[in-house]
Amino acid sequence: MEEPPCVCPPAVLACMEGAARFLSLIGPEELERCLFVERLVAAGAGAAGGEFWVTVQRAAYGPTGQPGHSCLLVRAGSHSVVDGVPCATSLQAYVSLQLETLEQELHECVELRAHPIERRLHVVTRGEELLVSKTLCEGQMEMLCERSRHSLATLRGLLAEGAGLLLLRVLARRGTMPPRLAFPTLDAEGHLCTVSYRALGIQQQPVGPEEAEVLVMERAVRPSAGIPAAWHLSCLRDGRLARWVQVGCPVVLLLQRMPVLTETDEDEPQPVFPKQPLAWEADAQLYSCFLDRKEELQASHAAFVRRHPELGALLADFLQALLLRQPPDPVAFAAAFFAPFAHRWPPGTRFAAAAAAPSPARGPRGMPPS
Fold first, then answer.
1. Which of 91, 150, 186, 191 would you call most buried, defined as having the most Cβ atoms within 10 angstroms of its Cβ?
2. Is residue 241 within 8 Å of 235, Cβ to Cβ?
């Protein structure tokens, strides 16, 4: 039996209009500047050999076997060993140029020795609905499988995990944001909740051996039931992450080396190659080629006219009509004159285009002169 659409919590309903309005102001040119790869390494107490990476690229998304629509493919992943427990996360999301989630797969794995835990959250847009399915496995046994659906007509401004990584780059490049910025989203359990962004100011932070100016933002997820989670994110002016900290977690993700930052968003001008004059008449070889080609075309044209003697009569009729009518627009008159000869042209009056033009052979209102 199909489940009815889920009911939105009040907090989600309250932020929908503002979220949809803010996302509509993000243009494709801003997203175009967010297509790059970044990688952070894990540091802190209890962390060993971890890293986090994000890549965004152009893609096409559509049903299997059919041409897809242009979109962005967001891939992200992380792996680390925290207090001796290996953890890994992977994300793949197809996001439209309006930051709508077309399809997203989030996979989390915690390799506990006795009971390894694996969780998958799949989100896909089908028609006018958003379908969400969550699977939880412990060891080789599937412990839980939940499915829900949401009506897109009543759910606006949704910002899933993949689209959120894109929005983070846009906000960092802008360097500013509204004081209260909140969006509907899905928590780790696949339930509707809210995510908010808040600017914490500009700071100087070390990036490898150098120091850089970063914009610090707070990202907070507030589920309808459960404990809120918050992250402090430091971003360079080109949108790259320099520091990722989850509040209350001892592990910190850091950028190891300062990238080369572009000073402006303007595209570099394309080189101009001026046209060089070609003195072909002074070149004996080129002039000889020109004469040979000219004679070849003349012979071809003469042979075509000989094969089609009706051309003479056709051109004579056209010139006679043209000289008699003397239309102000000979090109339009020619188009109307030859229109009946076209197989795909709809039938009509031969001289309709020139009917309104004055003619010495006609009087007022198309009557013969008195």
1. 186
2. yes
Round to whole Å and give the CA distance between 242 and 253: 8
**pLDDT over 60 at 370, yes or no:** no
Beta-bridge mates of residue 136: 119, 144
Angle in degrees, 0-180, between the axes of helices 330-338 and 310-325, rounded to the nearest 10: 130
CA nearest 18: which of 201, 177, 182?
182
pTM for this model (two decimals): 0.68
Amino acid at 137: C
Identify residue 270 by its one-letter amino acid code: Q
Which letter, b or e, does each residue of 157-168 get, where b requires 16 or more Cβ atoms within 10 Å of its Cβ? bbbbbbbbbbbb
In angstroms, the CA 264 to CA 260 distance is: 12
Say which residues have a Cβ less than 8 Å from residue 278's Cβ, sequence separation at least 6.
Answer: 286
Amino acid at site 112: L
In contact, 221 and 187? CB cutoff 8 Å: yes
Beta pairing partners, 53: 39, 77
Buried b (16+ CB within 10 A) or exposed e, 117-150: ebbbbbbebeeeebebebbbbeeeeeeeeeebbb
Residues 6+ apart with CB under 8 A from 320: none
Separation CA 356–CA 97 (nearest Å): 50
End-to-end CA distance of the chain: 86
Give the amino acid at 237.
R
Alpha carbon 132 to its chain's center: 23
Alpha-carbon distance of 166 to 58, in angstroms, equals 13
Number of other CB atoms surrounding residue 207 within 10 Å: 19
Tell me the C-alpha distance between 124 and 103, whole Å.
4
Query: What kind and span of H or E run contains 320?
Result: helix 310-325
Q: Which pLDDT tens digit goes with each residue over 60-73?
A: 998 765 677 899 99
What's the burial of 215, exposed, middle or buried (CB within 10 Å: 0-12/13-18/19+)?
Answer: buried
Torsion of CA 184, 98, 190, 105, to 10 degrees: -160
- CA-atom Rg of the chain in angstroms: 34
| Residues 183, 166: Cα–Cα separation, whole Å | 14
